[in-house]
Model the fold of this input.
Amino acid sequence: MNRQALDELKQQIPLMGYLQAQDWSPARPLSGGRWMGLCPLHEDHKPSFLVDTNKDLFYCYGCGRGGDVIRFAELYHQVKFPEALALLRQWRGVDHSLLHEAARFYRIQLHRHSEAVAYLYQRGVRSWATIERMRIGYAPGGCLRSWLTQLGQSLPALRQAGLVTAAGYDAFVHRIVFPLEGNLYGRSVSAAAPPHRFLPGAKGGLYAWAQVRQYPEVILVEGLLDCAVLWEAGFHNVTCSLGTHLNARQFRQLCDSPRTVYLAFDADGNGSGQQAAQCLSRSLREQGITARLISLPEGHDPNSFFVGGGKAQEFQCLLEEACP
Ligand SMILES: [Zn+2]
Done:
């Protein structure tokens, strides 16, 4: 991408608009189109983040970082320059109606593909109520493109959304699909393909946060299949961060009112899930949020716990035994 194209991209994405889309809001105005607010890049307690809307630049007096919207995207999403550009281009071009149409198509396909229903059953997702509530679909591969182009969508738009590859094939093949806000997550049903895929762009906030945030106690899990089995077991106060690393927006959501957060990350052999949970619980406590770590049996995640015969009552005991 040359200098001129970079400048064009920056003109199309004013820094303030992008910040606000990431849930940032200024705390107070300064002179000359400048604003101060809490820094979204570090845990800030008094506004130290300066945004200059005339120059489209930011600077944080707390963590000392600053730059343009591209630099912000690099730091905020913790990606390198080329990925930050891709995220911004995606954000500029994301067509939510297109994602909605794709998700609708995938939901129809789920009912037509017994292998997908069988996969969900094997992963503990066994009630249609869960499938309907989470709007779970299936991407068989090879037919989304023709469906959407028949509906009048253009091939370049499908490519830009990442639904179709540069070569013109469906991007999601043999994947269980969960709609997210502004993205789709595809879980491969085949062990031969990478298990997790998203469309280009940010993974968004915490899953179903608008419904879950009303609970004084919430359970946070890594994956959507963990979320699904817990919901099916009657735990409706469950949300998901899509990985152990929370983006700044997800972290702010967890802290948006006083609550207890139960962290049920994978108890994998190398301890990475537990390490991430401990690190997160410390950060939450610093924000005045009560955090408790759920100790699953070694080698289990919430999904395998229930698939392996774990009962809701047993998980309830784990919640009660969870340590700070
Ligand atoms: Zn900062």
Remarks:
- DSSP finds 15 helices and 13 strands in the chain.
- The longest strand covers residues 175-180.
- The chain has a mean pLDDT of 91.
- Residues 136 and 178 are 5 Å apart (CA to CA).
